[in-house]
Amino acid sequence: SSHEYKLNFKKSKEMCLSYIQDAMLQKQWKRAAEFLTFYIESLEKDFSREYTSPSEVIWRIGTEILCHHSHSSMKEFNSFTEQMKTLGVKRYLKVCLEHTFHLLCNGLIDEAYRNLSLAESWRFGEQTVIQGKEMKLIKAYRGLLDYYSWSKQKNILLEHGQDGFEDLSVEQEMHGCFRKAAVNLKEIIKIPGVWDLFVKCYVDLLEFYGDHNEARQVLNEYAYNSKFPANPNAHVYLYQFLKRHGESKKSLISALKILHDIVPSHELMIDFNIMLQKSKKRKRRRLGLEVIFAVLDYAGWKENVKAWSCLARQVKQIVISEKHLDWIKQEWNSRKDWWPAFHFSRYLAKKNWQENESLSYEKALVAGILLGKDCKYFKYVSHHGCKTQAKRFRILKKFVNKHNPVYVRISG
C-alpha cells in the first residue's frame, strides 16, 4: 500500500543516513561516499507524490566527504558546490560562503573573490531579503579580501619607496582597495557580534591613513558597547592601540583591568602587574599583588619564570618594609589549602631544580615566605643551591631565615 511504502522508504532513508554517519565517524570516506550516492538515488526514485527537495543534509555530508576523500579534486568540489547552489536556493548564500572558505583554505584567493562578487550580485525575489544576514557576511568577507589586496599594494610601495619608486597605477589600485574594504568592514562591525579579524583590519586601514580618532572610537565601541558579547580580544586590541599611541598609564590600566576580570590568566597580566607595581598609588600596588597571584592559579603559568619573579619581587618588598603584610595574608588565605601541593611539593622542587635554576630560586623565595623555612620546596632548593656555593642562594636562605616570623603572621 501507499502508506506502507512511505513507511519503508522513511526507514530506509534513516538507515542509510545512519550508515553514512558511522562511516564518517570512522573516517571511511569512500564508504561514506557510496552510501551518500545510494541516498541521493533513493530520493530520485521516490515515486510518492510528495516533492522531495535536495536536503541540507546532502550538502553538509557531501562537502565533508569531498574535503576528506583521497580521490576528490578541486574541480569535483567546485562542481558539487555549483549544483548545491542551483538546487538549494534557500541556502544559496550559505553555500557560497562555504565555497569561499574552501577556496581560501586552498590558497585560491582570486577565485574566492570572484565567488563572493557573484554572490553579492545574486537576486532571487524574496529569498534575497530572507538571506539578508548571509549577504552582510558575503560583503564583509569581500571587504576582507579587498583589505588583503590593499595590504599587498601597500607593501610594494613601502619596499620601493626609498628607491624613488613612483607607480601611480599601484597607488591608485591601493586607494581603490582601501575604499572598498573600508565600506564593507565598517558595516559588519556595527552589528553586535565577535568580529575580531574585521575590526583589526579596519583599524589597520584607519591608522595607516592617520585617522586615529576614528580607530579609537571603533575600538572603544567594540570593547565597551553592552550590546556586544564579552570579548577579551576587544580589550587586548584597545590596549595595544593605546600603547602604540603613547596613551596615559591610567588608560592602559583601565583597559587591562577589564581584561583581568574576564581572563585573569591572560599573557598581558605580566605587563599589567609590572605597571601596577611601579605605581605610587597603594590601591594599584594592592591590585598588582592580586593579579599575579591569580595568574599563578593556572597550570599554564606554573613554570613561568617571569611570573614567579614578579610575585617574588613584590612579596620581598612587602616583607622588607613590613607594610601591607595583610595583603599577602588575604591572598594566601584562599590558597593555603591547595598551593603547597600545586606549587611547592618536594617532587616539584627536584624537577624545577634540574630543569631551571632561575625558576627554582624565585619559587623558593616565595615558598619560604608563605610556608616558612621548614617548607619542603625551600629546604630542597636552598640546600642544593648552597652546595654549589652559589652566593645568591646563601643570601636567599639568610633572608628567609631572618624573616621567618613573617610566615607566622601570614599563616595566622
Automatic annotation (TrEMBL):
Transmembrane segments: none annotated. This is TAF1A polymerase. InterPro entries: SL1/TIF-IB_Component, TAF1A. It comes from Dromas ardeola. GO terms for cellular component: RNA polymerase I transcription regulator complex. GO terms for biological process: transcription by RNA polymerase I. It comes from the Eukaryota.
